[in-house]
Design brief:
There is one protein chain. The protein is of the alpha/beta class and about 375 residues long. The chain has a single domain, classed as TIM Barrel (Alpha-Beta Barrel). It contains 15 helices and ten strands. The strands form two sheets. It has an eight-stranded parallel beta barrel, surrounded by five helices. Strands 9-10 form a two-stranded antiparallel sheet. Helix 1 runs parallel beside helix 12, helix 5 runs parallel beside helix 6 and helix 9 runs antiparallel to helix 15. It is globular, with a radius of gyration of 20 Å.
Length: about 375
C-alpha cells in the first residue's frame, strides 16, 4: 500500500518531477515573509507568481498544495482591522492560486477561514499542540479536515488510539522530528520564530533555542534516539492505528543550497515510500549542526542512527511502558549504545556551542542578517 505523504517544497519544479512517482498527497510551503514556524532566513525565496506557477505544476501531477500560516503568535495583530484584512486578503489569494487549504495554529484564523473560505481545507498545525482527545475534538468542532498531531505523542500509543476514537477527521503525524522529546522550551521557540521578522529587521536575530537544544543532544547522544521520529519500517504500525497522513518536516533544511534541498526532500520521501532506510539521522530535521555566530566554524562529527538495529525498539512504547522519566529509565540509552554512532570528535563542537551561548547571554551584538 502506498503511503500518504505530505512533503515540504522549496519551489523547485524539479522537486515535483522527482516526487510525483511516489504519489504524495500534498506539498506545503509559504511566502518567506509569512509569519510561520520558520524564519525568512531559513526558507527558500519565492514570489507570489512563482508560488502560483509551482502550485499549478503540482496540481498537474495530482499533488495538492497546503499554504502555511502556522505562527503561534501574531502579536494580536489579527484583531486589528488592518491585520484582519491582511489575513483575509492572503486567504483570498491562497484560494485563487488553486491551493487545497491552509495549515495554521491560530484558532481565530481557523474561524476566519471556515467562515469566509469554506472551500479551503483547514489543517490544524502541530503547533496547536493537539495531544489528547479533548483538544482533537475541539479543533474538529472548528471544522478541521486534518489534525497534525503534536509529535510528542508519536510514541504514546494509548493516547494515539484515544485521539483516533474521538474524531472522524484525518489524523497526521510528523515522521522525521529530530527535536528533543518533551522539550521544555518548545513553545518559547515557536513564539520566538513567529516574531523573527522583528529581530531580523533589528539585526539581533539568533536562534538561541536551537543552540541550547543542540548542546543538550551533544552532551547525551541518546537524545537523538529519544526524539519522536518514526522509522520508515514502522509506518505500518501507525496506519493500523488509523493515522492517514504522514508529514515530512524540513522546509528549512537548505544544506548546500536549493539543489541539495531538492535531493534531500526526494531522498526522505523515497525512504518513507519504500518503508526502509539505513540511517534514520539522514532523514531528520532539528539535527543539522549550528553555524557559529561569533566563533570560527567547527566541524561536528556525523550522527548516524542505524535503522537495522532498531527492530523491536518500538514495542516498549506500544506496551505503554514509557513514563517520560528518563532519569529512572535507561531503555533508550541501552538501545542507543548499539544504534547511535557519532563519527568524529565532538568535544570542540560542544565547547563552541557553550561559548556561543555565553556570548548571546552577554548581548550587545548585531548579526549580519
Amino acid at each position: 500500500m502506498n503511503i500518504a505523504l505530505m512533503l515540504p517544497t522549496n519551489w523547485d519544479n524539479q522537486l515535483i518531477e522527482r516526487v510525483a512517482p511516489l504519489g504524495p498527497h500534498y506539498l506545503y510551503g509559504s511566502l518567506p515573509a509569512e509569519a510561520t514556524l520558520r524564519s525568512s532566513l531559513a526558507v527558500a525565496e519565492a514570489t507570489e507568481q512563482q508560488i502560483a506557477a509551482h502550485v499549478a505544476a503540482a496540481s498537474a501531477k495530482r499533488i495538492r498544495f497546503i499554504y502555511v500560516m502556522n505562527a503561534t503568535c501574531l502579536g494580536n495583530r489579527e484583531f486589528s482591522e488592518e491585520g484582519r484584512r491582511d489575513i483575509l486578503d492572503r486567504l483570498q489569494w491562497v484560494g485563487e492560486i488553486g491551493a487545497a487549504g491552509v495549515v495554521t495554529a491560530n484558532p481565530f484564523l481557523m474561524e476566519l477561514l471556515r467562515q469566509n473560505f469554506p472551500g479551503l481545507e483547514l489543517h490544524v498545525s502541530v503547533l496547536a499542540c493537539v495531544d489528547d482527545p479533548r483538544k482533537a475534538a475541539w479543533f474538529e468542532g472548528l471544522g478541521a479536515a486534518v489534525i497534525h498531531l503534536d509529535p510528542q505523542v508519536n510514541r504514546d500509543f494509548r493516547r494515539l488510539r484515544a485521539i483516533r476514537r474521538a474524531v472522524s477527521c484525518r489524523l497526521s503525524v510528523v515522521v522525521n522530528e529530530g527535536c528533543i522529546l518533551s522539550c521544555p522550551i518548545r513553545q518559547y521557540h515557536a513564539n520566538m520564530i513567529s516574531h523573527s521578522r522583528e529581530s531580523i529587521a533589528g539585526r539581533y536575530h539568533v536562534d538561541y533555542c536551537y543552540y541550547k537544544c543542540s548542546l543538550f543532544k551533544e552532551r547525551d547522544p541518546a537524545e537523538y534516539l529519544r526524539a519522536p521520529w518514526i522509522r520508515p519500517e514502522d509506518v505500518h504500525i501507525y496506519e493500523a492505528l488509523g493515522i492517514q497522513l504522514f508529514k515530512v518536516g524540513g522546509r528549512e533544511k537548505m544544506e548546500e543550497g536549493p539543489a541539495s534541498h531538492t535531493d534531500w526532500i526526494a531522498e526522505v520521501a523515497a525512504a518513507y515510500h519504500v518503508r526502509q532506510c539505513d540511517d534514520v539521522a539522514r532523514l531528520l530535521i532539528g539535527t543539522p549542526p549550528v553555524v557559529p555566530l561569533f566563533n570560527n566554524p567547527v566541524k561536528r562529527g556525523r550522527i548516524r542512527l542505524n535503522s537495522r538495529r532498531l527492530d523491536g525498539f518500538l514495542r516498549f512504547f506500544q506496551d505503554d511502558r514509557c513514563h517520560l522519566d528518563c532519569s529512572r529509565c535507561d531503555y533508550c540509552g541501552r538501545w542507543a549504545a548499539g544504534a547511535v554512532h557519532v563519527e568524529g570528535e565532538n568535544e570542540e563542537y560542544g565547547r563552541v556551542l557553550e561559548a556561543e551561548l555565553r556570548r548571546i547571554r552577554l548581548g550587545s551584538y548585531r548579526t549580519t542578517c
